[in-house]
Design a protein that fits this description.
Elements lengths: L12 H20 L7 H14 L27 H8 L7
Length: 95
């Protein structure tokens, strides 16, 4: 089994960028964990570079549509005002 890359291998620019971005992220994580000293300028620059290549999830917009279906029961048409009042009068409470 041969290890490593074949002679003439060319890494794509996309792959190089991913490696560079992961190095930036690793440096920032190490700084937060207290394993690496970084100046405020370095931290600010690292965060700026990451913002250019990683999505900012806090500003992601979510659009969705929710459909509610229901059945409305329409009362029978009343013949006159008195029958309408009887139909819609509050029901007496029973205990």
């Amino acid at each position: 089994m041969t290890r490593g890359r074949k002679p003439g291998f060319q890494m794509t620019d996309e792959h190089r960028v991913k490696i560079q971005n992961s190095n930036i992220l690793n440096a920032l994580v190490e700084h937060v964990e207290g394993k690496r000293e970084m100046s405020a300028t370095q931290v600010s620059a690292g965060l700026g570079l990451l913002r250019k290549v990683m999505p900012d999830l806090s500003s992601a917009e979510l659009k969705s549509e929710v459909v509610h279906r229901y059945v409305a029961r329409v009362p029978e048409k009343a013949e006159n005002a008195k029958s309408w009042q009887e139909q819609h009068a509050p029901k007496p409470m029973t205990h």
